[in-house]
Write a structure and sequence with these properties.
With 296 residues, the chain is of the alpha/beta class. It folds into two domains: 220 residues, Spore Coat Polysaccharide Biosynthesis Protein SpsA, Chain A, CATH 3.90.550; 66 residues, no CATH class. It contains ten helices and 15 strands. The strands form three sheets. Strands 2-1-3-12-5-13-10 form a seven-stranded mixed β-sheet, with helices on both faces. Strands 4, 6, 8, 9, 11 and 14 form a six-stranded mixed β-sheet that branches. Strands 7-15 form a two-stranded antiparallel sheet. Helix 6 packs parallel to helix 8 and helix 7 packs parallel to helix 9. The longest helix has 14 residues. The C terminus is likely disordered.
Length: 296
């Protein structure tokens, strides 16, 4: 019933997730794995190749660094699709708003972001649960995170992954879900819980370059929102959220300047301190001082 597609670069993670899928999915499935450890094809190209070979009506694109906490999650997934004809894509993390300003899938605003993931660290598990309406098990969103993307095969056939413009490993998820919004509903389910066993990606220069390229190409399409009216401070919160997040990563000075200049962020008083930290936090090793204080 479900074709599971994985682009693999780590044999150990792959074996773990294969065992987890087998023990928890609860429905008939096939596993389509591409070993990308040597060729390093872009993830859009890999996903399209594997989806073309899929035999089932429901496709599930997974990162390999995850484990499933929910039993019979495959039954849940099939049930959602079967009882909600308008839904074409399902994730476990996403947002109701995608700003025109450079950002990933989330906004940093709890009323807009939807997440149900356990992040596993060396010393602890941290359950990230952002559920704008706790009584609802499904939330409509405009973009989702690529850690888990389930979709109807006919949706993928209509809008395959954008391998012509996205040749790397970033923004394929946002691109797909934003295009899908035109033809179907995109949703996050809170009935499927998974564990993310790695840090979740490197947001260094490669990600920054991809982010700038994606947003420049999407200039006429953004913002996309499910809100009837977007509060004036929304974009300022998004800008601040991503400046504060990216300050922790090794990004070249030239790319930081590009990030700020292209978005015309210089002179915005509401983000002054976030801009300052964006430029000096990692180079001055303030991250080490901050973490050492937290341990005390």
């Amino acid at each position: 019933m479900i074709s599971i597609i994985i682009c693999s670069v780590n044999a150990s993670y792959l074996e773990q997730v294969k065992k987890s899928i087998s023990a928890s999915i609860g429905v008939e499935y096939e596993l389509l794995v591409w070993d990308n450890s040597t060729e390093k094809k872009g993830i859009c190209e890999v996903y399209n190749m594997m989806a073309f070979k899929a035999n089932y009506d429901y496709l599930c694109f997974l990162h390999e660094d995850i484990l499933f906490e929910t039993d019979n999650w495959g039954q849940t997934l099939c049930s959602i699709f079967q009882h909600n004809n308008e839904i074409g894509i399902i994730g476990v993390a996403g947002s109701k708003y995608k700003s025109e300003y450079y950002s990933g899938w989330y906004t940093g605003i709890k009323e807009l972001d939807c997440v149900n993931i356990i992040h596993r660290y060396v010393d602890r598990d941290e359950h990230q649960l952002l559920q704008p309406a706790p009584q609802k098990v499904l939330e409509e969103v405009v973009c989702i995170d690529g850690v888990f993307i389930a979709c109807r095969k006919k949706i993928w056939e209509t809008i395959p992954f954008n391998e012509k413009e996205l040749s790397g490993f970033h923004f394929y998820d946002i691109d797909l879900s934003l295009r899908a919004n035109v033809i179907c509903t995109v949703a996050v389910t809170f009935e499927i819980l998974l564990v993310h066993i790695t840090k979740g990606g490197d947001y260094g220069d490669n990600w920054v370059n991809a982010a700038i390229q994606f947003h420049e190409n999407s200039r006429l399409k953004l913002p996309v929102s499910l809100l009837e009216a977007v509060p004036a401070e929304t974009d300022s919160i998004v800008i601040n959220s991503w400046l504060n997040f990216l300050k922790n990563y090794s990004i070249s000075f030239s790319n930081k300047v590009r990030w700020v200049r292209k978005q015309k962020l210089f002179g915005k008083s509401k983000i002054f301190y976030s801009l300052l930290k964006f430029f000096i936090y990692k180079p001055l090793r303030l991250d080490l001082i901050h973490h050492s204080k937290k341990k005390k």
